[in-house]
Design brief:
- This protein has 438 residues and is of the alpha/beta class.
- It has 3 domains: 196 residues, Four Helix Bundle (Hemerythrin (Met), subunit A) (Up-down Bundle); 92 residues, Beta Barrel (Elongation Factor Tu (Ef-tu), domain 3); 123 residues, Nucleotide-binding domain of ferredoxin-NADP reductase (FNR) module (Rossmann fold).
- Helices cover 46% and strands 17% of the residues.
- It has 12 helices and 12 strands.
- The radius of gyration is 26 Å and the shape is elongated.
- The protein starts with a helix and ends with a strand.
- The structure holds flavin-adenine dinucleotide.
- Flavin-adenine dinucleotide (FAD) binds next to strand 4, strand 5 and helix 8.
């Protein structure tokens, strides 16, 4: 089945999960009718809960679900739809308090209904969750602490909303509807259980060993890993995996990295090339050979396409890693499609894989254009950044006939995507891999 057909099916399944439980409330025996705004507010509240609950599914890393889009698109959707759900969750009590102002009257101490306390807790958890997700870096919260608290807050928000819903019990008097909504909540929490307990257990039984640590140009280290006691997995060039080096897969310390090795290996060996950019990546060069590590993958939809098209690979800095896997794989299978690599680096010395790329030209129809942002005075090649002019200078017309792959720093990717649009390349002809899920 094509990616388009699969994505349509998953969109329909997603909408059914959100809308069916809502419309199911209108079946069977109904409570006495209330005014329009009260009913509207209840519908908004139920929708908010249905959308929030399904977030556990969006982030459960189900490969068969995320594949048609790629993990980064799913995470961006998770972010946007969460903001929408939180807005709905705030609108629900706001409408209620306007149409039923008596709810604001403070009851006697000890008489506050559980449904109200849990609703309050749920809303507070949601607000903290949004603030910490949007401004994590500004609040100086470490990624790991944020991730743990994100899960805890999401659980409090959903559990609080469930207790509120059952406690108020206006629509859930019918046992079937009660079972549907409580069952749904159990399903959402089971998704979290799967990703945090079942999946790590599976990974624990399928460890890898580090067989080589290789220093590369451009502050990059290649980690070569072999499956330990199992066959490993097969990946498509351009895909990525989650790497756990220190500790076990139960810890929330896995980091995403593209595979840089050829996808054509007989023994499941994989390599990741990691640039020193922060806490975790700076420790990679100290990993001892023989160390047991864990790999969860493969993920992502950023992978080579139609062999009839010329492939234009546009990489900036460490964004070369998925391209390297594509080039190595094409060389290993003897693919003859024309490939052009436009590769932005700081200077000549920091070009990761420079020598190997030159060697690979012999085995492939490969053209390489290096673009240096800070070259020495005698550099005769392209300088600055990859732009529409530079693309037009090196690519043959019609530009829309080629297939483009873009990976690099955010600003570079924005500029290249805009440049391709300016050259009349339709979105269906380019693929982007962003190295940030935020
Ligand atoms: C799909 C994908 C593929 C990638 N492929 C490569 C690659 O091939 N080579 C390469 O060098 N880099 C790659 N990256 C980037 C790499 O994942 C980050 O540079 C690395 O996780 C930063 O960790 P740090 O602790 O060293 O840096 P820090 O400075 O501590 O973190 C920098 C930022 O990275 C993000 N981050 C930190 N920890 C995690 C985590 N556990 N999970 C997700 N994000 C986190 C946070 O937004 C954080 O603010 C890829 C990223 C993605 C999303």
């Amino acid at each position: 089945m094509t990616y388009t057909a699969r994505s349509i099916i998953w969109i329909i399944v997603y909408l059914l999960f959100i809308l069916l439980p809502l419309f199911a409330l209108l079946l069977g025996s109904l409570p006495p009718a209330r005014d329009f705004w009260t009913e509207f507010s209840a519908a908004v509240g139920y929708s908010a809960l249905a959308i929030m609950g399904l977030q556990f599914g969006l982030t459960a890393r189900f490969r068969f679900v995320t594949e048609p889009w790629g993990e980064d698109v799913i995470y961006h959707f998770h972010r946007q739809i969460s903001l929408f759900a939180v807005a709905l969750a705030l609108v629900h009590p706001a409408i209620m308090l306007v149409v039923q102002p008596h709810l604001l009257a403070l009851p006697q101490y000890g008489e506050v209904p559980l449904g109200a306390v849990s609703a309050f807790l749920s809303v507070i958890a949601l607000v903290v969750l949004v603030v910490t997700a949007l401004w994590r870096a500004r609040l100086k919260i470490s990624y790991e602490l944020w991730h743990y608290s994100h899960i805890a807050l999401a659980l409090v928000a959903v559990a609080g909303a469930l207790v509120h819903m059952v406690g108020w019990s206006f629509y859930l008097t019918d046992s079937l509807k009660w079972a549907l909504w409580v069952g749904l909540t159990i399903f959402w929490i089971a998704l979290l259980f799967y990703i945090r307990i079942v999946k790590p257990l599976f990974l624990l039984r399928r460890p890898y060993r580090v067989t080589e640590i290789r220093k590369e140009r451009g502050e990059t280290v290649t980690l070569v890993m072999q499956p330990d006691g199992h066959d490993g997995f097969r990946f498509k060039p351009g895909q990525f995996g989650w790497l756990t080096v220190w500790g076990n897969p139960f810890k929330i310390t896995a980091h995403p990295f593209s595979f840089s090795s050829s996808a054509q290996t007989a023994d499941g060996t994989v390599a990741m090339s990691i640039r020193n950019l922060g806490d975790f990546t700076s420790g990679i060069s100290n990993v001892p050979v023989g160390k047991r590590i864990y790999l969860d993958g493969p993920y992502g939809a950023f992978t080579i396409g139609d062999p009839a098209d010329m492939h234009v690979l546009i990489a900036g800095g460490v964004g070369i890693t998925p391209m390297m896997s594509m080039i190595r794989t094409l060389a290993d299978v003897g693919d003859k499609r024309p490939v052009m690599l436009l590769y932005g680096s700081k200077d000549w010395d920091s070009i990761t894989f420079r020598e190997e790329l030159e060697d690979l030209k012999v085995r492939l129809d490969l053209t390489i254009v290096h673009v240096l942002s800070d070259p020495s005075a005698d550099w005769a090649g392209e300088r600055g950044f990859i732009s529409a002019d530079l693309l037009a200078r090196h690519l043959t017309r019609p530009y829309a006939d080629h297939e483009y792959f873009i990976c690099g720093p955010g600003p570079m990717m924005d500029a290249v995507e805009k440049a391709l649009a300016d050259l009349g390349v339709p979105m269906s002809k380019y693929h982007s891999e962003r190295y940030s899920f935020v």
